[in-house]
Design goal:
57% of the residues lie in helices and 0% in strands. The protein is built from 6 helices and no strands. Helix 5 crosses helix 6. The radius of gyration is 27 Å and the shape is extended. It starts with 25 loop residues before the first helix and ends in a 6-residue tail after the last helix.
């Protein structure tokens, strides 16, 4: 039996509200390479398999700043491109420090792994014991 005034009971189906059997390839959804960037397939493999653009730029920045250490202070005045590059690198390093794992977060991750996947935990345990039994450096 239909409820009274059933025609006032609209049914609303939003996207992804039902059964979704499609697999999504995140590399297709999150394309970071513009279509005009050389050979897209080569660029994509380099970024995903070798080094990201950020890592490549970081290497170039480090090499450049190492090479220009002896340049006079005139060139390195505040507001100069060289000073801006140094400031930018320092700010990037500060941001990276914020995202580095702490001992507490590593400990919690290892505990989670122990409860979630015993086999992988045993492999990690063996690797960590090998490291911990070596003499401390420094």
């Amino acid at each position: 039996m239909y409820p009274w005034l059933w025609f006032w009971n609209p049914q609303l189906n939003l996207p992804l509200s039902g059964h979704v059997a499609q697999q999504f390839d995140l590399r297709q959804l999150l394309r970071t390479l513009p279509s005009h960037a050389g050979d897209g397939a080569v660029e994509g493999d380099v970024v995903h398999e070798v080094a990201s653009y950020g890592k490549q730029i970081g290497w170039l920045t480090d090499v450049l700043l190492d090479e220009v250490k002896e340049i006079s202070t005139k060139t390195a005045e505040k507001g100069s491109p060289l000073a801006e590059l140094r400031t930018t690198r320092d700010r990037i390093e500060e941001i990276k420090k914020r995202y580095r794992p702490t001992a507490d977060s590593i400990f919690k991750d290892v505990q989670d792994l122990q409860h979630r996947d015993g086999k992988q935990f045993q492999q990690l345990r063996k690797q960590l014991l090998d490291i911990l039994q070596q003499p401390a450096a420094g």
